[in-house]
Amino acid sequence: MNATGERSNLLGLTRPELEAFVAGLGAKPYRARQLLKWIYRRGESDFARMTDLAKDFRAQLAGVAEVRVPEIVTERRSADGTRKWLLRMPGAVAAEQAIETVFIPEPGRGTLCISSQIGCVLDCAFCATGQQGFNRNLTAAEIIGQVWLANRELGRDPDGERVITNVVLMGMGEPLANYRNVLPAMQLMLDDLGYDLSRRRVTLSTSGLVPQIYRLAEDANVALAVSLHAPNDALRDQLVPINRRHPIAELLAACWHYLERQNGRSVTFEYTMLDGVNDKPAHARELAGLLRGHDAKVNLIPFNTFPGTRFRRSPAEAIRRFRDLLVQGGVMATIRKTRGDDIEAACGQLRGQVLDRTQVRLGSKLVRLAVRA
Ligand code: SAH
Ligand code: SF4
């Protein structure tokens, strides 16, 4: 039981946290390892079915703890095999909140795109999530719970292997603005008794929270993707407002530090192609000048539209030309295939249900806004 008299949720506890929890019940540390295997490897949430745990211990656990997973509200399936789940999140006030999780199957791999916050405060000009406003951070349980649920829904492939091979933190929210909960969730993805994913198969995408990139370089070992979207500060200030606080030179310095510290392979720079805004040949040349000589690759994302946006997708021809100019300029570049746009599951289309936008985070404080009648 925790301080509020609820059962403690074991989902989202890292290995050391779970060891401390079982020690508090008088059990040996290996019990924590058994629990990890049951919860993540086998996807079990019922202690009664964890058959290699002593019966008394199972009963003891059931009295004080549970494995509480998010609840599915709806599921949509795209013609291309992409699946999107809307998951209910308990609201701080009466209004229910919901977030979205997307599974994208490709030959030889399956990528799960998960959310880290209900909404986002950063308000990038071309992002549906940003326009939804912000409610709250997800807990570690709610973040790893998305992987847990998707694994349960997807089952195993015909060879008995898990279908999810990669996880990307590219859904709703800015993961580095919820560092405290994102870090343990990623540790569980990497833990060999958790999801046992290699560090190249877990990718965190950030719009550029520079201090947290330095922190991440010390704390975790995952692939880094950075939402650049513009080759100069004048344009990036307009598209990605956090740039006014952490301009491009500062951001790139943090990225190169990350690579050095992590011995990483490369940083991926995401660049959403907006017709007539950031897609001109001059932009491509300027971008190549910034990245040339570094372990960087650019992923060009065709803009995905949503109701109320003033942007349009660059024509396919402009996107290809942009890629070619980058490659000629000495920078690796690829064009991201748009997936799941018929179910609004493509990059930047995730909206969830941010019904209660009355809470905002100011620094480390959660503040309730006065709501006018
Ligand atoms: N907050 C994080 C991760 C979530 S967004 C970040 O910004 O990096 C995942 C990627 O989709 C980001 O690169 C984001 O800029 C991009 N994106 C947002 N809206 C988009 C849209 N409408 N079309 C295409 N890509 C979009
Ligand atoms: Fe937030 Fe990322 Fe959308 Fe920007 S692009 S508003 S950081 S979710």
Q: Give the N-terminus to C-terminus distance in angstroms.
A: 39 Å
> CATH homologous superfamily of the largest domain - what is it?
Aldolase class I
Structural class determined from secondary elements: alpha/beta
Question: Within the largest sheet, what's the order of strands?
Answer: 3-4-5-6-9-10-11-12-13-14
User: How many structural domains does the protein architecture include?
Assistant: 2
CATH class of the largest domain: Alpha Beta
The name CATH uses for the topology of the largest domain is TIM Barrel
3D architecture notes:
This protein has helices spanning 15-24, 29-41, 55-64, 128-131, 140-154, 179-190, 210-219, 233-239, 248-262, 281-291, 316-328; strands spanning 8-9, 65-66, 71-77, 83-89, 97-106, 109-113, 117-119, 134-137, 166-169, 202-206, 223-227, 267-273, 296-302, 332-335, 359-362, 365-368. The longest helix has 15 residues, at 140-154. It is built from eleven helices and 16 strands. By secondary structure, the protein is α/β, with parallel strands linked by helices. The strands form four sheets. The protein has a ten-stranded mixed beta sheet with strand order 3-4-5-6-9-10-11-12-13-14. It has a two-stranded parallel ribbon with strand order 1-2. Helix 5 runs parallel beside helix 6 (179-190). It folds into two domains: 8-66, DNA polymerase, domain 1, CATH 1.10.150; 71-372, Aldolase class I (TIM Barrel), CATH 3.20.20.70. The protein binds S-adenosyl-L-homocysteine and iron/sulfur cluster.
